[in-house]
């Protein structure tokens, strides 16, 4: 029975991270949460969930990826992916290439769309996996090692960027016809810009992966591949949802695709947690004074919190057709900054300011509550339809089952 315990707990973590991921990624892309804003919301949610699970159990201090840097790694890794666009490839998976959507459609092999979605998922998860791997290297890195590591990532990004510019015909359908040089073909322009934007992200993840392989840090390699492929596969396979638009159901097929990505990506994070974040013989080295000061400032938590509040405000205004205002943003800044200023003052007066930095469970619960609240706020339009009701019901199921699984895990760790 004892040997089965880690397997059962690993399955619970896998499912919990996946279900919460389905919610996080469904909100990413909702009103107010497009691009990097939505990416950071999803990343912050996963980061908080990972950190919470890392703090469970009597051996929590010996988890290699259980310290506060993991909060930034996941948040910024997922947020970084939001700077790229991929909507142009949705028609490709249906075998259609538009020069100026919805006009001038032409046939292309559907695999080209799935391949491009795979690349999108790879860079989204791959760079996140790289940042996570940096949090617990097998061997400490010197300043020179960091220079080489960054050089590998930058070199990979530059090489990929040059590749798509020198040989665009390898990635863009009908490029030899010169259609991408025609300003009136807006969809062609979108595809060209998308390829050029995505390529450096893909290249950086490959470059960082190559560095870890050269260094023979196989745990880091495993982390990058697990998270990278864990996003790439559901990103690509989930594209099947976009071939179902002719089915007569009032369901948001795009949102189903997003929830598939969140479920698969979240499960890959859960698998990475189970494989690479188990307690080890010794605890990780404590943070140095500079790192402690950085986290004590509250900035690593304030940035994603302000981002979540801004997205919620923008999304609410969009849904209710209310214009945003400078006063509204000013109030958001005050609301987001004040708790961190107060918390900094309190901890500085207490002896806890000199101790190792930890984020308490009540604080984590407050952050997760904020994300969930903003998710519902931007998912409840003034006038409901079947699709809205269906999605909100699913969100409630995801969150409810995840809370139930967390309670089970908490009790198992306590015993």
Give short descriptive properties of this protein.
2 strands, two-stranded antiparallel ribbon, single chain, 2% strand, mainly alpha, globular, 67% helix
Give a brief outline of the structure.
By secondary structure, the chain is mainly alpha-helical. The protein is 67% helix and 2% strand. The chain has helices spanning 5-27, 35-54, 69-81, 110-134, 143-166, 186-215, 218-237, 253-276, 289-296, 299-319, 326-349, 361-377, 386-414; strands at residues 96-100, 103-107.
What does this structure look like?
There is one protein chain. This protein is mostly helical and 415 residues long. It has one domain (2-414). It has 13 helices and 2 strands; from the N terminus they run αααββαααααααααα. It has a two-stranded antiparallel sheet. Strand 1 (96-100) and strand 2 form a beta hairpin. It is globular and about 70 Å long.
């Amino acid at each position: 029975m004892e040997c089965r315990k880690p397997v059962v707990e690993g399955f619970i973590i896998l499912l919990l991270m996946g279900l919460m991921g389905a919610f996080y990624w469904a909100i990413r892309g909702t009103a107010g949460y497009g691009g990097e804003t939505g990416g950071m919301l999803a990343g912050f949610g996963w980061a908080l969930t990972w950190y919470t699970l890392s703090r469970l159990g009597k051996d929590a201090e010996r988890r290699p990826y259980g310290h506060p840097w993991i909060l930034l790694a996941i948040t910024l890794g997922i947020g970084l992916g939001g700077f790229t666009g991929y909507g142009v490839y949705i028609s490709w998976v249906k075998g259609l290439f538009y020069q100026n959507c919805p006009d001038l459609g032409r046939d292309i092999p559907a695999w080209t769309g799935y391949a491009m979605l795979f690349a999108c998922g790879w860079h989204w998860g791959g760079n996140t996996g790289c940042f996570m791997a940096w949090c617990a290297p097998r061997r400490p890195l010197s300043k020179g090692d960091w220079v080489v590591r960054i050089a590998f990532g930058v070199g990979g990004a530059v090489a990929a960027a040059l590749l798509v510019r020198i040989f665009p015909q390898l990635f863009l359908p009908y490029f030899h016809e010169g259609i991408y040089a025609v300003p009136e073909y807006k969809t062609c322009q979108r595809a060209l810009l998308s390829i050029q934007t995505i390529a450096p992200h893909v290249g950086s993840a490959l470059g960082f992966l190559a560095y870890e392989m050269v260094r023979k840090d196989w745990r880091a390699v495993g982390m990058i591949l697990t998270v990278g492929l864990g996003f790439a596969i559901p990103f690509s396979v989930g594209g099947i949802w976009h071939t179902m638009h002719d089915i007569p159901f009032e369901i948001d097929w795009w949102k189903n695709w997003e929830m598939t990505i969140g479920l698969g990506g979240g499960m890959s994070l859960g698998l990475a947690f189970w494989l690479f974040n188990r307690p080890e013989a010794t605890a990780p080295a404590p943070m140095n004074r500079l790192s402690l000061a950085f986290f004590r400032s509250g900035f690593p938590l304030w940035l994603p919190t302000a981002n979540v509040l801004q997205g919620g405000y923008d999304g609410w205004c969009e849904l209710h057709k209310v214009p945003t205002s400078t006063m509204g943003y000013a109030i958001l800044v005050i609301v987001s900054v004040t708790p961190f200023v107060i918390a900094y003052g309190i901890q500085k007066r207490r002896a806890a300011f000199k101790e190792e930095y930890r984020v308490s469970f009540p604080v984590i619960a407050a952050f997760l509550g904020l994300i969930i609240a903003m998710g519902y706020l931007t998912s409840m339009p003034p006038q409901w339809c079947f699709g809205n009701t269906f999605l909100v019901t699913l969100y409630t199921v995801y969150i409810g089952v995840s809370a139930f699984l967390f309670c089970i895990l908490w009790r198992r760790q306590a015993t």
